[in-house]
Design a protein that fits this description.
With 83 residues, the chain is mostly helical. It has helices at residues 2-26, 28-32, 42-78. The longest helix is centred in the C-terminal third of the chain and has 37 residues, at 42-78. The chain is rod-shaped.
């Protein structure tokens, strides 16, 4: 069960990083203003932020899928309506 959530978080990280790479390529000036007191590479910070968001969203999606699977299993074992 934990491996499914971890796998979903890793998939989310990859997809988020790809989204961040695309966003950093299209709008680098937006990400260059994230830390105005230092000079940062806009595409790098976009990739890191995208990967971080992807881990959170992917892990939440994996946890929600696990919760739904447990709920359906519990209902079918109780003799509820099978779908």
């Amino acid at each position: 069960m934990v491996s499914r959530v971890t796998l979903m978080a890793l998939v989310g990280m990859v997809l988020g990083a790809l989204f961040g790479w695309g966003a950093g390529s299209l709008a680098p000036t937006f990400f260059a203003q994230m830390q105005p007191w230092t000079s940062v590479e806009p595409q790098g910070i976009a990739i890191v932020l995208g990967a971080f968001g992807g881990v959170l969203c992917g892990g939440a999606l994996g946890g929600f899928a696990l919760f739904l699977q447990l709920l359906v299993t519990w209902r079918t074992e109780r003799g509820g309506p099978a779908e």
